Input
Amino acid sequence: MLALSAIFVSMCSLYLAHNSSSAMERLVKASSWPFIQLESGNTGEDRVTPDLAFIVSNAGTGPARVHSFDLLVDGQPVEQSNVLVRLLQACCDDVYTAETAEHENPYEVLGVIYTRPVAPTLIAPNDEVVAMGWPRTETNERLWQAFDQARQEGRITTRACYCSVFDECWRVESGELPVQQANACEAALEER
Output
């Protein structure tokens, strides 16, 4: 009887230890879970100045290792070099051609844009990266408005693939929830 009692107590102890271990593992993962949000807007930080921006923010509790980031027009990724010109040609070519026809350098019309690489980077919890920003000016107003209209219609979107420090990966697209679990970021992008 004593031996059976000892075996029973040992089994209970093993069960409790396993449950406690699983609970601790879930707690650690939850406290280091990244959650990337893809946003865009047409006002600057002061909420008054017209400024188109594409923002990647981490609303999670852990760092996000961003492996890929794309700007898309009508679901097709746009090459990142000379990105604003490529976006405008893809979404608003008639307005772009009309507005830049008399200029050798399209940036004489477009004005200043600012970009920052999003991938590969690490985004800390409660931090954000402005992937692209474009202030409206008198010179670029017609192009800016055409671009903003395409963005508001959902023609210009963003997508990213990111992982946690535990190599759990997700892919996210602007305007879509929930995020999609992925085996790895490379595989997630090949699925598209």
